[in-house]
Amino acid sequence: MVSRHAIRRGVYYDSVVLMQLQRSLAALPGVVDAAVVMATPANRELLESTGFALAGVEAGPEDLLVVVKADDAEAAAAALAEADRLLEQRRAAGPAGAPGAYRPRSLAAAASALPEAHWVLVSVPGRYAAGVAQQALDLGKHVFLYSDNVALADEIALKQQARSKGLLVMGPDCGTAIVNGVGLGFANRVRRGRVGIVAASGTGLQAVASAVHALGEGVSQAIGTGGRDLKAEVGGITALQGLDLLARDPQTDVIVLVSKPPAAGVATALLSAAQATGKPVVVDFIGYPPPARRLGNLHFAANLDEAAELAVHLRRAGKAPPISDGRPPITGYVRGLFSGGTLAVQVLLGLQPVLAPLYSNTPLRPEQALANSLHSQAHTILDLGEDEFTQGRLHPMLDNDLRLRRLRQEAADPEVGLILLDVVLGDGAHPDPAAELAPAIAEVKAARPDLEVAALVVGTDEDPQGATAQGERLAQAGATVLRSAAAAVEYVSRRLQQPYRYPYPALPLAHFGEDGRSLAAINVGLEMFYHSLLAQGAAAVHVDWRPPAGGNEALMAILAKMRSGRREQQPHG
Amino acid sequence: MVDIEQANATAVERMTSARPILKGVARARDVIPGMRDNLLLHAGPPITWERASGPLRGAVIGALIFEGLAADEAEAEAMVRAGEIALEPCHEHAAVGPMAGIISPSMQVYIVENVTHGNRAFSNLNEGYGKVLRYGAYSPEVLARLRWLNEVLGPVLQEALALSGEGIDLRALLAESLQMGDEGHNRNKAGSVLYTAKLAPWIARTSADKETIAEVLRSLAENALSVLNPVMAACKAMADAAHGVAGSTVMTTMARNGTELGIRVSGLGNRWFTGPAQVPHGLYFPGFTHADANPDIGDSTITETAGIGAFAMAGAPAIVSFVSGTPQDALNTTLEMYEITVAEHPYFKIPALNFRGTPVGVDIRKVVELGILPRINTGIAHRQAGVGQIGAGLALPPMEAFEKALMAYAEEYLS
User: Fold this and answer.
1) B366 and A106: CB-CB below 8 Å?
2) Domains of chain A by residue range
3) Is the Cβ pair B410, A561 closer than 8 Å?
């Protein structure tokens, strides 16, 4: 048996092509085994582990390596020649379109061949992906960035630039999306319909879309963001663009927002944007405790199936009227002064996705820890029943003195807009908390009429204090009376919901089905995505992409420098 | 930093708005800038005798014998080796010559003027097929043919062009011939007929006798390359108009001396960037093979530089048979050249591409980035002096030349 190899330098083929080629070679007479790979260290290691001898073979990641094990030298040579022939054949004739039809080599040529294409699918190796995406943005195209291993800094730069131009970058590492009824990347065949999806999780998107389909409804648009979009550094740029798009999209009735738990500030921004859509939004932050079942138009689902079911239910129920009492929102901070520890935690849990920054002396996450319990910071939820406050004094359920002093302290802070107190009734509790709390509330309200005070009254009318009677006295003093932690969360989040207007150029609805067209797209990278586009009836052009400058780093750097100079001269916006 | 896009747009606008007119014919010594009695111009980038290929050496010998400077091969070679004769690129003297491209001081040359920008360009008279100086042949019949060109054809053409008053608008002629199946480099059949037709009424009015007029007309009409040299000079006039735009990455020269191919770039002055010339691939005349072929030679790639030749292949499907291609291959060649060019030519249109303009203005950035080299249609010379043309086909320039140019650009403009 003999082993022979050939190296083709500075070429690039996607792995699917190479696997097909490998299969063809292995099937040749006299060939025992064949490998056709880009000679990356990982691939070399794999080959050596499967019995290919590569000692002395000088090939690097930019080189195509063909290795053949055959019965004799003749069969090996024939197989190597066949490899070249098959590769040439692929280059010469695109499988789609007229035989031998021209296959563009650059994005620019593809764009002029299919000018109606608003989308570019990028699935080239990660180190080249940002460059291709950049070219797509320069041409004014939206980007579906399937490639992974794109630097975070590149992702941020691309997304910020896209946002300023009214363009969308889905990804990097975006496995799937549905635009105008056409699946991009790994795509499920889902009927068109009125449920819009924004997902930072590829399989989450697929699961929800498929479930919506199975339940008889369909998807208007499904925007994938890539897994890092909701990191603090990226700030949910793509997800926010997606929410704004779906808010405006007349073909979307209900929105589903799916992601792994986002960074705190990002969650807040997302939920504000979701609230501002005015459409029912089903939120599933996978593995994150739902803050409530419902916050205004936001409906929290515990898992993907429930998210799909809720979306379908809401879609069939019709549009819910907007919830607003007409009062201007509170712009100051919330301070929660709790005597009940569990109530404090419940409210903290409910508010943490909608208020940031949020602090507590009983934090749920390290970043929520209050530096000094005696001084509130930003939004603060305090459990005044904690040991640090109760040493040498009675529990605040029995003794209101500490809370009254803290109420006055918080009211004196001009940055505070809402104070939330709990009033826990029952045997053993203070016999008449309203007698002390109501005058204090009236006093701070008199000094600051803009300050809102809410009281969460927990108890029954059978209790010695009488829940209704206590509530009435607190209400007379100027407090808003609430009867459950969920109601408190809902009330606070609604009162603090700031009017939200998406501050960046809007994604053009015309590119999302409003012009009545299906999808037209340019594919750069994995050829199977091109075939998938054609099979779904989309107009598509495949770019016969190869590494720029043959992968020569020095030349690539020069070319990049020449391009960046150009962009500096053309301020975007 | 310099605005490269703007610089390139300027360069290509100059290239395409140039309007080359064939104005006359005169002795090289009298009209070519910098021409001297002991100077021979040659195709391609600078070269020494030591490194020159067979056909170029043969043409140098032939020209020195033609000029009466040397009696034979040995004497000619000795003169060049001794430095008594200087060799300089045509391109550095506003001139271009096919294949070896030798222009000697007493040769009659075409004068083409770009009336838009005022620059002039020159080329020698075409010798036709067979044993010719441009392929390195210098037998007595070759020298006799050169003398006829110099003493009969040249003066008649000069007189005819003078009588015409305006000269011949080569841009208009090319625009027409490109729609008649020519690409202006390897195929000039239609252009040569048009050229003869435009000149005929004026040639008929010259002071030459009937026999001479008949001989001149027959020569022009039968030589399918008779318009090649004026076309090359026209392309040179267009390319030179685009040269010297600061910051531009547009290629304004691409030429081969049979050993190396060299390019020059609009924004990089008169520096040459070179690499080894490739042996063309194509069809060979009976009895010859690839092994007989000389590496790529000639200034005729000025046509590709100006947006015709291989770049206009989509309009000349007849010649794809040189590489056993199909008409689709011809279309693909032009479509590929759009990827590395700055603009589409406003005058040179291709019917098969719905009258899209030819790709014009090669951007060296795009060549390097995409790994797409400018295509070249070319005649193939025998590697030995004097054998002549042995085939025709396609060639590619060395990527090295473009990479060197890009690095020089980075040094000049980006550091």
Assistant:
1) yes
2) 2-92, 174-317, 333-495
3) yes
Confidence of residue A322 (pLDDT cuts 50, 70, 90): low
pTM of the entire structure?
0.80
How many Cβ atoms from other residues are within 10 Å of residue B68's Cβ? 8
CATH 3.30.700.10, applies to A174-317? no
What residues in A contact B370, CB-CB < 8 Å?
Answer: 105-106, 546, 548
Nearest-angstrom CA–CA distance, B202 and A87? 57
Is it the case that residue A90 has pLDDT exceeding 80? Answer: no
Closest residue to A565, CB basis, from B4, B336, B339? B4
pLDDT, one tens digit per residue, over B18-53 is 999 999 999 999 999 999 999 999 999 999 999 999
Tell me if A559 and B368 make a contact (CB, 8 A cut-off): yes
Please give the structure tokens belonging to residue A22.
């490998």
Interface test with A, best of B5, B370, B373 (most A CBs within 10 A): B370
Partner residue facing B370 (CB), from A100, A105, A552: A105
Q: Is the pLDDT of residue A320 over 80?
A: no
Alpha helices in A521-552 (DSSP H): 527-535
Looking at beta carbons, which residues of chain A come within 8 Å of B406? 555, 558-559
Which of B366, B371, B414 lies nearest to residue A558, judging by beta carbons?
Answer: B414
Superfamily of segment(s) A333-495: Succinyl-CoA synthetase domains (3.40.50.261)
Say how far apart CA B375 and CA B341 lie, in whole Å: 12
Average pLDDT over all residues of chain B: 95
CB contact under 8 A, B407 and A549: no
Q: Which residues contact A541 (CB under 8 A, 6 or more apart)?
A: A104, A110, A113, A114, A117, A521, A522, A523
Judge whether A174-317 and A333-495 match in fold.
yes
| Whether the Cβ atoms of residue B223 and residue B89 lie closer than 8 Å to each other | no
Domains in chain B, CATH or no CATH each:
20-231 (3.90.1710.10), 244-414 (3.90.1700.10)
Give the closest-approach CA distance of A6 to chain B in angstroms. Answer: 21
A81 burial (CB, 10 Å; 0-12 / 13-18 / 19+) is exposed
Asked if A90 contacts A17 with a C-beta cutoff of 8 angstroms, the reply is yes
Please provide the size of chain A in residues: 573
Q: What is the pLDDT of residues B164-218, one digit of tens each?
A: 999 999 999 999 999 999 999 999 999 999 999 999 999 999 999 999 999 999 9
Closest listed residue to residue A34, CA positions, set A89, A87, A83, A86: A83
As a dihedral over the C-alpha atoms of residue A505, residue A507, residue A511, residue A514, rounded to 10 degrees, the angle is: -100
> Which residues in chain B are closer than 8 Å to A102, comparing Cβ atoms?
331-332, 335-336
Tokens encoding B252: 């304004």
Q: Which class does domain A2-92 fall in?
A: alpha beta
Categorise residue B264: left if φ over 0, alpha if ψ from -120 to 50, beta otherwise. Answer: beta
Tokens of B189: 């059949």
Contact A549 B369 (CB under 8 A): yes
Collect all residues from B whose CB is shorter than 8 A from any CB in A. Answer: 1-5, 249, 326, 328-329, 331-332, 335-336, 338-339, 365-366, 368-372, 399, 403, 406-407, 409-410, 414
Q: Residue A419: helix, strand or coil by DSSP?
A: strand
Polymer length of chain B: 415
Triad B256, B257, B260: Cα angle to 5°: 70
- The verdict on A106 touching B (C-beta cutoff 8 Å) is yes
The mean pLDDT of B311-333, rounded to a whole number, is: 85
Please spell the DSSP secondary structure of A247-258, one letter per residue: HH-TT-SEEEEE
Q: For chain B, percent helix, then strand, then coil, each to nearest 5?
A: 45, 20, 35
**B40 with B86: CB under 8 angstroms?**
yes
